[in-house]
Amino acid sequence: MEEKKFDLNTVIGFILIFGIFGVMMYMNQPTPEEIEAAEKEKQEQLEVAKEVNQEQQINTQESKAIVANPQDSLAMESAKAQLGAFAYAASLPSAIDTFTKIENEVLSLKINNRGGYIEEALLKNFKTYDSVPLYIIKDGKNASFNLNFGTTDNRILNTKDLFFEPTLSKNGENTILSMKLKVSESQFLEYRYEMQPNEYMVDFSIRSQGLQQVFNSSQAITLDWKLQAIRQAKSASYANRYTDIHYEYGGDKDDYTGQGDFDEDTEEQVSWIGFKQHFFTSVLLTDTPFKTATMTSKNVASTSELDDKDIKVTKEFASTIPLELQGGELSYSMDWYYGPTDYKILNAYDRNLDEIVPLGWGIFGFINRYIFIPFFGFLSGFLAPGIAIVVMTIIVRIVLSPVTYKSYVSQAKMKILKPEIAEIGEKYKDNAMKKQQETMALYSKAGASPMSGCLPALMQIPVFYALFNFFPSAFDLRQKSFLWADDLSSYDAIATLPFEIPFYGDHISLFPILASIAIFIYMMMTTGQTMQTQQPGMPNMKFIMYLSPLMMLIFFNNYASGLSLYYFISNLITIGIMLVIKNVIIDEDKIHAKIQENKKKPKKQGKFQKKMKELMEQAEQQQKIRKK
Question: SS in 3 state form for 41-81?
């Protein structure tokens, strides 16, 4: 395959194509009649899309609920025939579709009498990308919470169809809401919510009283929790990469479902389940671990469709959990978390919830938790987030500058040895074994090694990968502006395209362009001085030199601008450090003189080197014998 290059002809070709495209658009402007017809068709499509979207939504109000006036004997008999003992709940004044509101400084919840579950969860201190109030649950249409159970009179009931009776009270500064699904005044199933000031975590419990003779113990009680993730970010496709189910199982192990569709049963006890979005999360925690759970995550649209402005939901989550009776009764102490996917907040609960934030595994997560998060938190305490990124990048590059120095010294040595390596290659061009042996001998005498330049670079990988995970997960960057970027957690569009480019998008981001240019210059400086003639079977370094900036340009166009800003500043500083090392610190003449001195000195070989030399000599001898 011929290698594609961006030469002058290619640039002119692109200009001509876009010029022709512009002329065609002008020549093919629609008539007023065509515009009117198109608008009518668009309106019809929107109506159809709205109907489809409504069908997809989890609407808890669609199921049939039974209400019975206690003064109407026929209605009561009908209710008893359908609900059995729970007909009592249908006869109470609370058997109406209304809600009770509990709130504190950061969170507002509306709990509907019907089903006893949260029909609205509003985070009071945050807005969506288009500056509207941020709801995790809105109008009861994107979430449901239901207990499915059997009764001793052979009925199967769902709490989402039954009416709970609300009672508000206070416990000091805490607000308590008791929702009771009554069989009688002393027999009931209760959902209890307790909200503390300034807390995203709400105490929640499920318990029953006097229902031993109502619940059918031979039939499983199943908890079904569903949620559709409401779109909250400008780039829904980017946010969807960080939208999935996280859960803790087996005591302290955690896992997540990933970006694709997922359906799995856990084989170990589950301590909590989190329906995670990029920057906001719903979590159900339990003090009594669930014996097992089935979790489902489903994408509602393809990646290319997600950034359509009409897309309101990105993923559908569901979990099905069997509950166990204790002495014929239900008793589960739980918690609800509705709040930011912020490492500092989640970590403070000491429930392993910080694992919801994707900071990387192993050493990468360690670096983020104990170095970058505290350090960035310190800097952003007195600096704007954009400035904090720049300062942190400068300090990271300075700390890593000794590694850069060693890498550059190694490259300088290899550059100086290039003529002698070429001479060896020409001298032993017909004897690959001898050429390799002599080349290694030269490296050994000169105190140089082609690997010595790679090792310092490898040492930097944990830092770079940790930061690659850090910036997209840094909640402090959300909706924070810097220069032309209005949100460092999303892309920085400086121009909108009238069409979509595959893998690139429908906009142009400037930070990835600057980062790509900086990476190209850096690679020219590092690869150019050591680049040798391409050997058969080896990668084309010139191709890699062009490919890396191109990948940065294309794939980072939709990434968080804070990450592209880091790469731009990092490579800019690295270029500066390398220029200082090359022109001020390193004297190539001195390095050359030192290499010549090393070559004159007898080089003491270690056991490994001696063994390698013996093996190579044996291989060379065997090669000569075969030729004879």
Answer: HHHHHHHHHHHHHHHHCECCCCCCCCCCCCCCHHHHHHHHH
Are 198 and 104 a contacting pair, CB within 8 Å?
yes
Using CB atoms within 10 A of its CB, is residue 174 exposed (0-12), middle (13-18) or buried (19+)? middle
Pseudo-torsion of CA 101, 104, 108, 113, nearest 10°?
Answer: -20
The model carries a pTM of 0.76
CA distance 242 to 467: 16
Give, rounded to a whole angstrom, the gap between the first and last alpha carbons of the chain: 41
**Residue 248 confidence (pLDDT) above 70:** yes
Q: Tell me, what amino acid is at 383?
A: L
- Dihedral angle, C-alpha 554, 556, 558, 562, nearest 10 °: -150
Backbone angles phi, psi at 170, to 5 degrees: -125, 145
Q: What CA–CA distance (Å, rounded) separates 25 from 37?
A: 18
Q: For 94-130, what is each residue's pLDDT tens digit?
A: 888 899 999 999 999 999 999 999 999 999 999 988 8
Specify the higher pLDDT residue, 582 or 272: 272
CA distances from 173 to 110, 169, 194, 199, 442 (A): 19, 10, 10, 12, 78
Query: Which of these, 74, 63, 114, lies nearest to 92 by C-alpha position?
Result: 114
261, 298 contact by CB (below 8 A) = yes
Note the pLDDT tens digit of each residue in 10-37.
333 334 333 433 433 333 344 444 445 4
Q: How far apart are CA 518 and CA 538, in angstroms?
A: 26
* Residues 165, 116: Cα–Cα separation, whole Å: 8
Query: How does 156-166 read in b/e, with b if 16+ C-beta sit within 10 Å?
Result: ebbbbbbbbbb
Please name the residue that has the structure tokens 């109407």. Answer: 72
3-state SS class at 339: strand
Q: Which tens digit of pLDDT belongs to each residue from 278-314?
A: 999 999 999 999 999 999 999 887 666 666 667 788 8
What is the maximal distance between C-alpha atoms in the chain?
Answer: 114
The phi and psi torsions of 31 (rounded to 5 degrees) equal -75, 165
